[in-house]
Amino acid sequence: MAIRIFKNFFKRIFYNIFRNKREIKLGFYGPPNVGKTSLANRICKDFTGQEMGNVSKIPHETRNVQFKEKVEINYKGRTMTFKLIDTPGIATKIDYEDFLKYKLKKKEAKNRAKEATQGVIESIKWLDDMDIVVIILDATENPYNQVNITIVGNLVARKIPVLIVANKIDLKKSDIKKIEAAFPEYDVVGISAKYGKNLEEFYESVFKLSKKI
Ligand SMILES: Nc1nc2c(ncn2[C@@H]2O[C@H](COP(=O)(O)OP(=O)(O)OP(=O)(O)O)[C@@H](O)[C@H]2O)c(=O)[nH]1
Ligand SMILES: [Mg+2]
C-alpha cells in the first residue's frame, strides 16, 4: 500500500517535470467559416510574429491541416509550449453550388468542394492526435447542429479535454448564452478573433485545461 502511494507520488512528479518540457498539441476544430484560422493566426502572430494560414469569407478556405510547432505562449508570467493545429472546417454537406454565389467559376467551385471533402476526412483523422481541442463556433449561429454534436461526441469518447470558443462576439447578433445552453458541461469563452477581444480569458482557460492532460 505504502509502496504504491510512493510510486504514484514519484510518477506524478516525473510526469509534471516532463509535461512542462514537451509540446501540447492544441487543435482548432469546428464548422467552416467560424474563425478557426483567424484565432490560430492571432495566437501565432502574438507569440511568433508569423501567421498560420489564409482567412476568407468563402467557407472551406482551409482544406489541409496546418501546423505551427514550438509556439511558446506566455500568460501571467508562465510559459507553455504548444503545437498549434488548424484544421479544415467539418461539414456534413459540401455542395459546389454553394460556392458559386461567391463568384467562383464552376470548375473552381467543383475543385474546392472536392478538396473540402478531403479536408473533412483529414480533420477527423487527426483528432486522435490532439492533447486539447478548442471547438470554435460562430456565436451568431444556432449551435444545435449535427456537426457540433458529432465533434463533441467524438472528443468525449476519446477523453480529450475540450474548450468551447464562441467567436465573433463583436457582432450584434452574437449570443454566448445560447452556446452555453447548448453545451452546459463545458467552459465557453466568448471572443473576437478578428479584433482580439477577450483573448486573456481564452489563454486562462487553455492553461487551466493544460493541467488536466
Ligand atoms: N466579425 C467577425 N468576423 C470574424 C471573426 N473571426 C473571423 N471572422 C471572419 O469570418 C470569416 C472566416 O474566418 P476564417 O478564420 O477563415 O474561418 P475558418 O473557421 O478558418 O474557416 P474554414 O477554414 O473555411 O473552415 C472571415 O471573413 C473572417 O474575417 C470575428 O471575431 N468577428
Ligand atoms: Mg480556416
Q: Find the structural class using helix and strand composition.
A: alpha/beta
Mean pLDDT over all positions: 93
Q: What are the bound molecules? A: guanosine-5'-triphosphate, magnesium ion
Tally of individual domains: 1
Large-scale geometry: globular
Molecular structure report:
The protein is α/β, with parallel strands linked by helices and 213 residues long. Helices cover 42% and strands 19% of the residues. The chain is built from seven helices and six strands; from the N terminus they run H-E-H-E-E-H-H-E-H-E-H-E-H. The protein has a six-stranded mixed β-sheet with strand order 2-3-1-4-5-6, sandwiched between helices. Helix 6 links the parallel strand 5 and strand 6. The model has no long low-confidence stretch (mean pLDDT 93). Guanosine-5'-triphosphate (GTP) binds next to helix 2.
Question: Can I get a quick summary?
Answer:
By secondary structure, the protein is of the alpha/beta class. It has 7 helices and 6 strands; from the N terminus they run αβαββααβαβαβα. The protein has a single domain, classed as Rossmann fold.
Quickly list its features:
213 residues; binds guanosine-5'-triphosphate; binds magnesium ion; alpha/beta; 42% helix; Rossmann fold
Which helices and strands occur, and which strands form pairs?
Layout: H1 2-21, E1 24-29, H2 36-48, E2 66-75, E3 78-86, H3 97-100, H4 106-126, E4 132-138, H5 146-158, E5 162-167, H6 176-182, E6 188-190, H7 199-210
Parallel strand pairs: 1-3, 1-4, 4-5, 5-6
Antiparallel strand pairs: 2-3
